[in-house]
Design a protein that fits this description.
7 strands; binds NADPH dihydro-nicotinamide-adenine-dinucleotide phosphate; binds 2-hydroxyethylsulfonic acid; about 40% helix; seven-stranded parallel beta sheet; alpha/beta
């Protein structure tokens, strides 16, 4: 039975991936800051599989290493790392950008991903086996108006994904990115700082991807034969052609 560690498993893509993995019989390490949600998900998924929760902020590098070091023996072998935790904060022209938002996006989406990877990769190297899935975005393939720093953070994920694959080559570790387009999660609630009406409008007038769609793809990626590494996969709703072109019905 494989063990998967999923960052950002309290909502959206991470939560759906946890649910899918539980049904498929993976052991789970669920991570996030909202401990009530982690406890709730653990109690729901424990009927399907073994679940361990790690409650921490990926920005806190000391905590990241302490939490990974605290894993009990039966969860110590992380076979699959899903680097998913992240969000956009704000949607402003660069000249009006909020420095706290910039810090949050770079600290969480980029540095947090690096800290977790740094803590997990040594075990994978020791075992000469493992699979890292980095959740990028269409925003890491194409910059869109006012996306500036969020796009930069996802371009960085794209670069780190490539860099990991190059540097870990020859060690039996698979590395790949899944890059979703518009997916209906709490993403826009966070981007618009709790303005739910504004957030809802992002997904109105077309059928957005659902987090379960991305979980399905992540499950597909991790269940390929071991010699098959899906290096980079981009997925959009059918109504979306690019970051700025979405066929919305009024
Ligand atoms: P959600 O807001 O639903 O989920 C974000 C998750 O990240 C939550 O579980 C949250 O947990 C966690 N997270 C955020 N900040 C931190 C932090 N500082 N420390 C630990 N965990 C954190 O959004 P999505 O599911 O949509 O986002 C998941 C990933 O998918 C992100 O990397 C996002 O950039 C990417 N993505 C999303 C798309 C979309 O359209 N929705 C499209 C393309 C990519 P908690 O708050 O409990 O800590
Ligand atoms: C999330 C997709 O287009 O809202 O990464 O930036 S988008």
């Amino acid at each position: 039975m494989k063990t998967a560690l999923i960052t950002g498993s309290t909502s959206g893509i991470g939560k759906s991936t946890a649910i899918r993995f539980a049904v498929e019989g993976f052991k789970l390490i669920l991570c996030g800051r909202r401990s009530d949600r982690l406890e709730q998900l653990k109690s729901e998924l424990s009927v399907e599989t073994s679940v361990h929760i790690l409650n921490f902020d990926v920005r806190n590098k000391i905590e990241v290493f302490e939490k990974i070091a605290s894993l009990p023996e039966e969860f110590r072998q992380v076979d699959i790392l899903v680097n998913n935790a992240g969000n956009a904060h704000g949607l402003d022209p660069i000249q009006d950008g909020n420095i706290e938002d910039w810090d949050a996006m770079l600290d969480i989406n980029v540095k947090g991903l690096l800290y977790i990877s740094k803590a997990i990769i040594p075990g994978m190297l020791e075992r000469q086996a493992g699979h890292i899935i980095n959740i990028g975005s269409t925003a890491g393939k194409e910059v869109y108006p006012n996306g500036n720093v969020y796009c930069a953070s996802k371009y960085a994920v794209d670069a780190i994904n490539q860099g990991m694959r190059i540097d870990l080559n020859g060690n039996g570790i698979r590395v790949g990115a899944v890059n979703p387009g518009l997916t209906e999660t709490e993403f826009s609630d966070v981007r618009f700082k709790g303005d739910i009406d504004k957030a809802k409008k992002v997904y109105q007038g077309f059928k957005a991807l659902q987090p379960e769609d991305i979980a399905d793809i992540i499950h597909f990626v991790v269940t390929r034969p071991y010699h098959v590494n899906i290096a980079d996969l981009t997925v959009m709703p059918t109504a979306q052609a690019s970051s700025t072109l979405v066929n919305k019905k009024a």
